[in-house]
Amino acid sequence: MESTPAAGENIAVLRKVRGVGQARLAREAGISLSYLSKIEVGLRPATPPVVAAIAAALHVTTARIHGQPFLGPSEQADLLNDLRGAVRRYTLPREDLPDPSVLSTSVKRAARLRADTNYLELLRVLPRLLGEATAHALAHPGEAGAWEQVADVYGCAYAVAHRLAQPDLADMIVSRQSWAAQQTWNPSAEAGAAWNEAGTYQSAGQYDDGLAIVERAISRYEAAGGTGPEKVMTLGSLHLRGVVLASRNEDRQATQDHLNRAWDYARKMPSDVLRHNLTFGQGNTALYELAAHIELNQPHRATEMSTSLIARPPVGLNPNRLGRLFIDVARARLATRDLPGAEEALDKAFASAPQMTEVHPMAREVLRVLFVLHQRSRPGLLAMAKRTGLAS
């Protein structure tokens, strides 16, 4: 694989191209000069809030700093272009009307591929599936369930675009998902679209705006008067999104408020459930709490939490959630200078969710630091670095 730069390297290049010195950039981003210097040379990882602050100071997007995890012609790039075309033709599907039962099975398979982080296979099926689901819904305009399927397929498409560092495509997909969700008359489908909409602000480092989207979605859903397990899962999921946004915004009170509400809902569920491409339950809530400790610069609390979670991973969590657990554990262990432990956690992330771990910005940042520190003495690190494109 061709070697691809990570966030720290991109920061150095962008800073020099703009003629900005390290001292000035550190000052404008609100971090120390020493910290910035270590990020650029690979001795410290560039965390999401730091990337957001540096992006604002350099007047670029966070996606520009994270960089493209794959370069050159590839099947992945071709498939993404096919997906762009399908999303652009959202009211003009080219596909014939599918058999309803076959369509339902295909939508469920797409959700499974997303949960398993099998992004390449999901990319292969999404363009045609979007067209078929939309053709079916347009032929049955009064059938709410048909539009729910369209919204769910767009939810799968958002996950791919987000994870493969395609923010503009992700923005377009979210607008299409919101359009489809509005045809469902189902507040949960609209809340699912809002969850992804808030995610676009999260990716851009605009945490305040993302929190505003979450709060609005919560208010609208509560006003709609939903009941039962669907209400528990929907509101709980929105609060989990709030946990991420608030913790990255370094707002401890808002983080705790969203976390408390999420736990209130999670305790009402016997196990984690996947619906509308959202996972909610006690296991996933614990994962979000662990991640919040990292964002709030409490890595020791995160490592303490991780002991039981790794020894006995929550039942019902899909590979995409388990992969994220191990990535966050790697982040916490790196922050506490447990370098072998961080490498071990990354190895588990690759085993759980390989396609996600290969392109996840924080997995790449942790790996880059470990590789800089131990590139010659740790053959396992070299193998992982080659998989991610950080080494040729």
Would you give an account of this structure?
With 392 residues, the protein is an all-alpha fold. The protein has four domains: 7-66, lambda repressor-like DNA-binding domains (434 Repressor (Amino-terminal Domain)); 69-182, no CATH class; 186-278, no CATH class; 298-392, Alpha Horseshoe (Serine Threonine Protein Phosphatase 5, Tetratricopeptide repeat), CATH 1.25.40. Helices cover 74% and strands 2% of the residues. The chain has 21 helices and two strands. The protein has a two-stranded antiparallel ribbon with strand order 1-2. A hairpin with a 2-residue loop joins strand 1 and strand 2 (278-280). The N and C termini lie close together (6 Å).
Keywords:
two-stranded antiparallel sheet, single chain, 4 domains, 434 Repressor (Amino-terminal Domain), mainly alpha, 21 helices, 392 residues
Proportion of residues in β-strands: under 5%
What would you call the shape?
Answer: globular
By oligomeric state, this entry counts as: single chain
Tally the helices: what do you get? 21
Uncertain residue ranges: none
| Average predicted confidence as pLDDT | 92
Helical amount: over 70%
Order of helices and strands: HHHHHHHHHHHHHHEEHHHHHHH
Distance between the termini: 6 Å
User: What is the topology, as strand order, of the major beta sheet?
Assistant: 1-2
